[in-house]
Amino acid sequence: MKSLTASQIAELTGGRTLGATDTPITGLETLDFAGPNDLTFIGDAKHAERWPDCKARIALIDRKLVERQAVGLKPCGPTPGDNRALIAVDHVDLAMAKILEHFAPPPQLPGVGVHPSCVIDPAAKIGAGCRVGPHCVLGPRATLGPGCTLHSGVTIMDDSSVGAQTEIFPGVVIRERCHIGAGCLLSSNVVIGTDGFGYRPSPDGRSLVKIPHIGGVRIGDAVELGANTCVDRGKFSDTVIGDGTKIDNLVQIAHNCRIGRCVVIAGCTGVAGSTTIGDGVQIGGGADIKDHLTIGPGAKIAGGAQLMHDVPPGETWAGSPAQEHRNAARQYVAMRQLPELMKKAKKWMKE
After folding, report:
1. For residues 18-56, b (16+ Cβ closer than 10 Å) or e, as one string?
2. Is the bond preceding 321 in cis, omega lying within 30 degrees of 0?
3. What is the pLDDT of residues 175-195, one digit of tens each?
4. What is the DSSP secondary structure assignment for residue 183, as one 8-state letter?
5. How many CB atoms lie within 10 A of CB 78?
6. Using CA atoms, how far apart are residues 91 and 98, in angstroms rounded to an integer?
7. Is 9 helix (H, G, I), strand (E, B) or coil?
8. What would the pLDDT profile of 244-292 be if each residue is shown by its tens digit?
9. Per-residue confidence band for 76, with pLDDT thresholds at 50, 70 and 90
10. What is 205-269 written as a DSSP string?
11. Quick check: 262 and 248 in contact, CB under 8 A?
């Protein structure tokens, strides 16, 4: 069983130890559920108030909460307590990530080589050191870069390529003429390269005509796609996702979208076709984004927002329909006052 002492945690995270305890931690847990052998974490003053009642002996804590007193400010953080320790760090979440890496179980990977149950077209190319698990299918001219891992049941169709060291989990389908960069992670049941949703009424008005989509999908390096996320192919040119972008589960990226570098999109978001999203944009869960919009670099879209207009760089938008968040907040406050105003209006009308 893996374990860490307070001093080892401080060394691993670059933190400063306050208090002392000999109890090693063997796991991680939240304040409410942590036991004596768990490490917990405190990121703000609200959670710091619950530290005295927590059973954990060691906690990571934001350095600002415990070092205010050193510069003459009133302390807002807890004291360690008897036989307990606080590890003060600059960024609790980043420090916690290092501890999680220490405790993470080793990955379960297929063996190097191609499992005998796979169907591999003679024209497909598989790089050195690849791991191709059971029941995978590689179509004509499909290409895997060196060190790729395909878990069971992955399908990569004609003329598609996957860059070096990319890991693809069970059930992923990569359709024709799609290209995935190096060091990517595709979670289970991701589908890349389905036709975009394009139909027009037939001349007689009695049916729908399907619009062919002949473009592809091009995904950069170090991109992560969550389970059941779909990325549609372009109508003419490619749908594009830039390097380092992270997309959560159950996200829909429609045809001809162009998503920049290091964009973060939370779960259940839908991005309609031909939308451009700049570098570093953050989009909250369940957002709905209309087609043919432009979201400027560094913008933030709140969860549940219904976006109908372009967003300038660096702005934060929220609401339904979405608008600049300060305007949205003022309207929300006004709407909450409507029931009382209606009562007063009815009273005035009677008078």
Report:
1. bbebebbbeebbebeebeebbbbbbeeeebbeebeebeb
2. yes
3. 999 999 999 999 999 999 999
4. T
5. 22
6. 11
7. helix
8. 999 999 999 999 999 999 999 999 999 999 999 999 999 999 999 999 9
9. low
10. SSSEEEPP----EEE-TT-EE-TT-EEEPPSSS-EEE-TT-EE-TT-EE-TT-EE-TT-EE-TT-
11. no
Cα separation, 235 vs 230, in Å, equals: 16
Please list the active-site residues: 255
Residue with tokens 């130890």: 17
For the chain, list the domains and their CATH numbers: 6-103 (3.40.1390.10), 113-256 (2.160.10.10), 272-351 (2.160.10.10)
Sheet with 137-138: list strands edge to edge: 119-120, 137-138, 155-156, 173-174, 191-194, 230-232, 252-253, 270-271, 288-289, 306-307
**Bridge pairing between strands 178-180 and 199-201:** unpaired
Could you tell me where the DSSP H helices lie in 20-62? Answer: 45-48
Share of the chain above pLDDT 70, in %: 97
Amino acid letter, 333:
V
Lookup: tokens for 99: 């501890």
